[in-house]
Here is the input.
Amino acid sequence: MTDATAPLAATPAAAPAGAARRARTRRTDTLLRIAILIAVLGAWEGLVRLFQVSPLMFAAPSEVYAAFVRGATRGLYWEHLGVTVFEMVAGLFIGASLGFLLGVTISEFERVGRLFFPYLVAIQSLPKVAVAPLVILWLGFDIQSKVVLVALITFFPVLINTMSGLAIVDAQRMDLMRILRASRWQTFRFVRLPSATPAIFAGLNVAVILALTGAIVAEFVGAQRGLGVLLLQAQANLDTAGMLVILVMLAAIGMTASTLVRRIERRATSWVSRRENTP
Amino acid sequence: MMPAAGLAPPPIVHTAPQLMRFEGVGQAFDTAGGPLRVLDGVSLGIGETEFVAIVGSSGCGKSTLLRIATGLLAPSEGRAAFCGRTVSEPLAEIGMIFQDAVMLPWMSVIENVTLPVRISGGDMAAARRDAAMRLDRVGLSGFHDAAPATLSGGMRQRAAIVRALMTKPRLLLMDEPFGALDALTREHMNLELARIAEESGIAVLLITHSIAEAVFLADRVVVMTPRPGRIAEEIAVPLARPRTEATLLEAEFAAICHRVRRHFRSETGIE
Here is the structure.
């Protein structure tokens, strides 16, 4: 995942010793992480000022913050932010649900899988954002077209991962289920679905990020509201600091969403043995 | 190669009614190098409440025989019959213990143990009480809600035995259940299994490649030859029950072990 923090967390000191030592390591990690942030922001500010970068090209963190405060006091962001988040969440929910259900159907009914799979591969290899103009033509500039596009884009990673998760069967567990005379549904419910959860979440982790990408690209193509629209407006106004404000917001949304999914994943697959301190 | 009569001192008399019978069971698998015969004309009966152990070196088709007994595998020749009916699918009356405990890692120990009842749609509240009691008796009190991964191999296997007994089977099939355990744990598990089998009075068919384990636990030891698996000899084990550590010190125990061991000297050619 985030390889940058891995070597920090996996230092030998973190492994043996007691909980106190581990807690201390974690505190140190947090402090270091904050230090890294401050260093990066400082360097950014310093370099922009040092080289007197044109405000049309780039803006220092202080200017970005000032732009944010200006926009926030005018109440510029919240509606757009809400629209983009809604498109992302609703689209992800629909796309992931359909992807999961179709993945289950395909793996449960082999024949269906064999018949439809080649076409699914064909559709999957098509860049979904390329369909955006068509979807907007059909559904208009409002929210629905964005939700559909996000659903379309998040559908495939969940579908493919659900399928590959369900394709892995542990022969012994399946024997156990047969000996306990479990029905097909019980075998699915008690063995196959739990075995597939880590793979399904791997798909969801990808889908979450794609959902945000999908929402923004769809807004670029044609929308009246949303952070993508705001971003294009800022560009048109040569407001570079304003563009950076939106980018920071997008990063925050993406991080929040993927952390949330990761947290649900941890809870749902607590039985998976992971390397200690995997971020 | 039928059950040997000539040399065997106490001829095997099946007094108890037959619970499970293998009748001329043969099995061949198609492999890249042509058909591979793993079992050949195996005929064997297991009486009610009888403990039978099959000993054989690796590749003698012991596990295949057990898969046939469970109904997971249909034999190429002959049949396995339970109470006179051909076994063609897993039966509720037959429990099975695998070499690995096969605990589902996403369920707690007690959820794993009560799973058979959950699947068969039985009374879960009663099953939980029953399971809790049985887990306590095999030394797993305090681990009911633990994740299986936090248990040792021996503890997991004990939980697996409890799970197999939950539906009160009449026959328990065990496929090298202690093969993956260390020697000390294994000895302890043997004592425990002897106790469980004696108390519950169910029939057991145990597969093992430990001669001492087979003789210690069984009423009858069946020696199998490797590839294709045939029955070389059936040896009665008239050691007194209950079997305890003291059993291991009896001269007769050593004598029977020796008699079983002779087969492996001559058959493998390794002196």
